[in-house]
């Protein structure tokens, strides 16, 4: 919208100095001098070179760098250059460009935590390889002084390496112990520390067995699991952030010396804001001037546009359709209705908060079991031999053998593979446990407007009109940018209708369009304005003469793949509900069309959330798919939730997964992938358990050598990872 | 076996060079755009002096 208001920079370099452009540049840049653009269409070496050369040639650009992986450009430009100028420049080179709000991308800019984990992983990998080589010499028969020397060198490598690499585990374990809980990291930390202490002791007494290699390999494998986990989540986070960053929140504030573009965060109650047709209300307020129609579908689910005139209250998120409006802000930012919805979300979320992931459930069984087992081994051997050294050695061996190396990899490896596969299909998984929860779903609740439908109307009854009426309607609609008019034009042109000769066409904002045809006044617009009987569904009315009116009915276009997705979900035995804020006739028609037996119309946000809560109390696992503000509480209350990328930011934040494409078919596929991912996780747990069952008796009986520990640990980890990788391929 | 006193430090030193090199590449953001970097080498624009 704003791009059209600025003259393109390439056509008019002097405009850069114009006050309006200057103001826009100041307001729209969180970090001065840096402009971030999203370039969704770049794909090759030539694209990079073309954009970088094209931008670099401009005198007002200091540096431009394209990142092909993220499909982004970072531009360092003079302070007076605005993002719009840069977008125009990139578009002139033949590429699509959108501005990204740098403030919303903070976490992706420098992924410190990921880098930190990678560094620790590298150190652990380096150290474990070296110690492993030294250990191979010991296993193959190095004796006496050579063995002691190798053990001491191993200790010299292992101690600092573990002190550095093991920190994430030590910190987590300490945190859990301080809170009086046990988690996976407690047995890990205990195993590592006990292994180091006994190994040092053994080395000092020139004993045979030292577990330096085992302790390091353990740290390495577990860090690999952590890193995978972190990467999966940071990819999802950065993609979710990018969606937010694409919606740079701006508003045009009316000031004494004219209009100025400012960030929405700077608005105060009492400010006068200009909202152009096609723009969204940035704040809650009251219309001060202007007449128009409002599309409230994202807030309420209603598809019928409502009339808007001076004095009427508007809420943030509503779309202005026809005429320019001046709005006096009454509530901004945190106080606006968009944010008040957050309270409802918080209440709804409280019901879901008690989900324990599979890994946590495993850890709850596992951690105490391991400690008891190793303590028993220690006590038993001590009572049998009265030798602390032997007893401690065996206790350490038990801890190392049982250490959840495979368990630590079992879940992250599977979720990484599954999320990677879903990401390629256009599904973004934001929450770590969302996949597990999705696999349990037995009830699916859909929102209608914007979720099952695209939110764009389609003309239903063109064939009911005679050629003359269709021609007049087309002529009147062609001059308007109202969504109904655009749908009418599209349908009429597709049917080969030619516009009639209508003169003096003018648009009456908020009402419709009128003109003169064959000496008569003809009108296309609201029922009251054309003198027609209003229908219950979305419609516009054509008036050809006094008392001669026709209704043009519109239906919401179904989203691509919606029928298949609903059909597949029903076929898989899940119950499907349709909850909508729209009127009953439209909802019933949609439910009938998709074969959904249970539906509810005119649902308020509280109704939706309480319906979901009722289903939950019946013991059902509900998947909620919705996009609007009226869905956010329901999204948060459901067992797992999905929203399309076109949803309001609030809805995307409340949901666990985001659908990046427009096709809904991936929904059914996602549930299948989630189920097979859950199966793989369970399989991996079984593999890990089986290996423990085989190896633990050896350890308790005192037969475990460092060689057996190393072999068992590596094989189980590799088997678990390979099993997880099966998910990446074709078969689900 | 006295050769070990040279060989072990030498091997550790060589491995350490690799580790330090890796940490240097991580710290200097060389993994930010793997896809772009693999294409950039095809262009001869920055052959003489690398892009800052």
Could you list some keywords that capture this structure?
heterodimer; A: Alpha-Beta Plaits; Calcium-transporting ATPase, cytoplasmic transduction domain A; 5 domains; 6-stranded antiparallel β-sheet; 27 helices; 26 strands; elongated; disordered N terminus; B: 52 residues; mainly alpha; 0% strand; magnesium (chain A)
Question: How does the SSE layout of this entry go?
Answer:
The complex is a heterodimer of chains A (732) and B (52).
Chain A: H1 2-5, H2 19-27, E1 34-38, H3 45-56, E2 61-67, E3 72-77, H4 83-92, E4 98-100, H5 106-109, H6 112-139, H7 144-165, H8 167-178, H9 185-204, H10 212-246, E5 250-255, E6 258-263, E7 272-275, E8 284-289, E9 292-295, H11 297-300, E10 306-308, E11 313-314, E12 319-320, E13 325-331, H12 337-350, H13 358-385, H14 388-402, H15 405-424, E14 427-429, H16 434-439, E15 443-446, H17 448-452, E16 453-459, H18 467-478, H19 483-494, E17 503-508, E18 512-517, E19 520-525, H20 527-530, E20 539-545, E21 548-558, H21 562-571, E22 575-579, H22 584-594, E23 598-600, H23 605-617, E24 622-625, H24 632-637, E25 640-644, H25 649-654, E26 657-659, H26 666-701, H27 706-725
Parallel strand pairs in A: 15-22, 15-24, 22-23, 24-25, 25-26
Antiparallel strand pairs in A: 1-3, 1-4, 2-3, 5-6, 5-7, 7-13, 8-11, 8-13, 9-10, 9-12, 14-26, 16-21, 17-18, 18-19, 19-20, 20-21
Chain B: H1 4-27, H2 34-40
How would you characterize the overall build of this protein?
- The complex is a heterodimer of chains A (732) and B (52).
- Chain A folds into five domains: 1-109, Alpha-Beta Plaits; 112-237 and 358-415 and 676-728, no CATH class; 249-336, Distorted Sandwich (Calcium-transporting ATPase, cytoplasmic transduction domain A), CATH 2.70.150; 427-442 and 560-660, HAD superfamily/HAD-like (Rossmann fold, 3-Layer(aba) Sandwich); 456-557, Calcium-transporting ATPase, cytoplasmic domain N (3-Layer(aba) Sandwich), CATH 3.40.1110.10.
- Chain A has 27 helices and 26 strands.
- The longest helix of chain A has 36 residues, at 666-701.
- The radius of gyration of chain A is 32 Å and the shape is elongated.
- The two termini of chain A are 43 Å apart.
- In chain A, 48% of the residues are buried.
- Chain B has helices at 4-27, 34-40.
- By secondary structure, chain B is mainly α.
- Helix content of chain B is 60%, strand content 0%.
- Chains A and B meet through helix 3, strand 2, helix 6 and helix 7 of A and helix 1 and helix 2 of B.
